[in-house]
Amino acid sequence: MRNSHHNGVKDAFSRLKMALATTFALGALILALYIAEPKALAVLELALPPELAGAVYFAAFSVAALAFSYALARLVYKVGALTSAAITAASPRLKPLGPPLRVFFALAALLAFTVALLNLLSLKVSAVAGFVEWLTSALGGFFSMLIALILALQVKEIVGNYLAWLIIKFGGLVEEGDFVSFGGSS
Predict the structure, then answer these.
(1) What is the per-residue DSSP string for 69-124?
(2) Residues 6+ apart with CB under 8 A from 15
(3) What is the band of 134 on the pLDDT scale with cuts at 50, 70, 90?
(4) Is 94 left (phi over 0), alpha (psi -120 to 50) or beta?
(5) What whole-number distance in Å separates Cα of residue 3 and Cα of residue 9?
(6) Of 11, 37, 117, 173, which one's alpha carbon is 20 to 30 angstroms from that of 142?
(7) How far apart are CA 79 and CA 75, in angstroms?
(8) How far is Cα 157 from Cα 153, in angstroms, rounded to an integer?
(9) Is 125 exposed, middle or buried (0-12, 13-18, 19+ CB in 10 A)?
(10) Which helix (H) or strand (E) holds 65?
């Protein structure tokens, strides 16, 4: 049993290495396309009109960006699957954490795909860049408001408990050494 688990982890790591290599190769391709844009357009303009050459270059860049975003999302999902498998195999008590972890990493993979694709396309399309700026500011405002709400709720609990302690202590409701139970049973 232990040997089969070891082989499963080894196989998962080999698949993870392949996904990592694919992601890095596609990232290098995008970087090369981005850096060599003027030279690539000059070569394409030898055979095509300038507008069509720009469209062909943009199509090639978009396909490479889509492939890189997909490979990155697959890598994030595989890391999540490996993590989930390792955690559930570690202890039977941790087995219920498997499905929520898989869902979390699936959402993280979707987020990685979306962010990578939008950011890569915003390099070439100004409308996408404007959308990314708007989305970033909207989500930034939402998450900062969410954090402020969580902090306010925590402060409310702390201050409420402190005020309750002050009222009980100085109101003479209980004496030193008395046992106080708020659960309904005494």
Answers:
(1) HHHHHHHHHHHHHHHHHHHHHH-GGGGGGHHHHHHHHHHHHHHHHHHHHHHHHHTT
(2) 78
(3) confident
(4) alpha
(5) 10
(6) 117
(7) 6
(8) 6
(9) middle
(10) helix 50-90
Six token digits for residue 108: 């993280």
Does residue 68 contact residue 120 with C-beta atoms inside 8 Å?
Answer: yes
Pair 157, 163: CB distance under 8 Å: no
DSSP 30-51: HHHHHHTHHHHHHHHHHHS-HH
pLDDT in tens, 146-161: 888 888 888 888 888 8
Q: Which of 101, 100, 104, 105 is nearest to 78 (CA)?
A: 105
Residue 176 one-letter amino acid = E
Give CA–CA dist 23/69, Å, rounded.
8
Q: What's the predicted TM-score (pTM) here?
A: 0.62
The number of C-alpha atoms within 13 Å of 7 and in the hemisphere containing its C-beta is: 4
Burial code of 149-162, b = ≥16 C-beta within 10 A, e = fewer? eeeeeeeeeeeeee
- Round to whole Å and give the CA distance between 93 and 88: 8
**Which residue is it, tokens 């995008």?**
30
Nearest alpha-carbon partner for 34 in 68, 57, 67, 66: 57
**Six-digit token pair at 103?**
């869902």
